[in-house]
Amino acid sequence: xxxTMHCTGACKQLEILSLRGxxxxxxxxxxxxxxxxxxxxxxxxxxxxxxxxxxxxTRRLPYALYxxxxxxxxxxxxxxxxxxxxxxxxxxxxxxxxxSHFHADHICGLADFPxxxxxxxxxxYDSVASLxxxxxxxxxxxxxxxxxxxxxxxxxxxxxxxxxxPAACRPFERGWDLFGDGSVTAVDLSxxxxxxxxxxxxxxxxxxxxxxxxxxxxAQAVRENRLPSPPAFILFDGRQDYKRTFGNLVELHRRQPExxxxxxxxxxxxxxxxxxGIELL
Length: 281
Ligand SMILES: [Zn+2]
Hints:
26% strand, 14 strands, Metallo-beta-lactamase, Chain A, six-stranded mixed beta sheet, binds zinc ion, 11 helices, alpha/beta
């Protein structure tokens, strides 16, 4: 199985908000997603990033508030579908999209993959499915980005077999084996969003890779055990859950300093974009 990272655009955010002790300067936050070329399950995406659909979904109030507070730079040439084509596939070839959570910057591309099943947490979906208007914007959810046939194509992680994770993943002990072969194991990373999931990918060298979505905004924050600034916690669904999940990541890094932790908005994961990719087991 091969993992590649791809960038769909970026927004701007204050560094001090994302990193305690950071500077009062705006930094670019990339919107990344991952592509997994699985030997028997085909092409799988982890999230889908931004697309011009973000502008469409935020044209009117109250959804425009999202666009005004988080200006996004993206384009047709940066969409997940274009990255799929550039990798030599058609969007129709994507068999599954694993959705970490339903914030707009992770699901803009869902509608571009007509044959994909949507693998996500049922509890996570249920917590946003009925949100509309201001209540949706407050949770960074844009209902128009969720395809109308979503539920018919959804595949809930909670229904996947539970599996013990290898010792290298401690303190994470159990997850959901998404494809029945141990190659991709989902874990609960609640906090940033309720029931957010990440996935451990089985590594070729016995060292797994974690796709951690938004459980941290950077690998640096985990290495240095620096939570986001207090005002940033307003953006999170669960303050205590965020701290618990973040603490688990810090512990994971302490035990396995060599493990790659790839987060959606992290500059280090961004550097992997356009590169060869990582061979996994
Ligand atoms: Zn998010």
